[in-house]
What does this fold into?
Amino acid sequence: MSTTPCAESPMAPIAKPAASGATAQATRKIWIDGELIDREHATVSVFDHGFLYGDGCFEGIRAYNGRIFKLQSHLERMYRSAEKLRLTPRYPMAEVAQAMRQTVNVNGLRDAYIRLVFSRGVGTLGLNPFQCPVSGTVIIADSIELYPPALYESGLKVIVADRPRIPIKCLDPAIKSLNYLNNIMAKVEAIDAGVLEAIMLNTEGFVSECTGDNLFIVKDGKVSTPSVDAGMLHGITRRFVIDDVAPACGIPVEERMMRIEDVFAADEVFLTGTAAEVIGVSHVGETPISGGTVGPITHKLSDEFRRRVSENAPED
Ligand code: PMP
It folds into this structure.
């Protein structure tokens, strides 16, 4: 089935009622290279280097009440990732934006998680990416799986992973590449320890980020977060908290290199991410943070974040 171009402008809000439950899941449509395909038939070639080598990049994006949160920032990060991988996107940014709106709309979603994937495309079994003439584009829009609401009150338990974050020189963590094994193996460390997230250090021992979230600390009323020089995904939620949410609460944020000792000594620790939003940390390993609960500044920032995205989520 081929798609008709969406008449909406890339920044226009989505306006369709939400479908729900198993029926909605079964009838989901996935956008693949310009066509909307039924979920059960939505497949890619085994010769796609995205499958063979994790060669490609992706974005995880949220729609709140019909508005795609920070759509433009996500698209810019996606095209930056592609450029760093020397992957040529098949479609221009505006067309991908339109296709994302179309995929959300056709699935009757208003609150959604959107996955955008560029794969290197179909090629030979060799590594050479330039023998893959056309890159692949996939858009999945689904209902969002969230942390249980109680966790936002009690706080998240995390560990410090043994495994360091991959150095910038090897594969810049700022690239949201399809090769997530560094994060996955650290996540396995967390799961083995019975928790949901792990703090990752870089190979020089500086705090980098978590497996799927960025990290902030609060000490003596001051909020700080590791500098991107430590090597990390430049989180869209992190940037929104630094530039908009915290200033609106009268709380400046400092970006700096930090050691794990700074985290253990913090009054509060919180994480940011597309799925998690702003979530407090109650324990790092066996060490309670903020008395083993969620601190007041975290609550303030989390509430302000929620207010902003639920009222009128910015799409820029
Ligand atoms: N770090 C990593 C490794 C991530 O995968 C993510 C996204 N899940 C984040 C941080 C948070 O980034 P964002 O706020 O853009 O979702």
Residues 60, 183, 209, 212-214, 233, 235-238, 272-274 surround 4'-deoxy-4'-aminopyridoxal-5'-phosphate (CB under 6 Å). Residues 1-19 have pLDDT under 50 and may be disordered. DSSP finds nine helices and 15 strands in the chain.
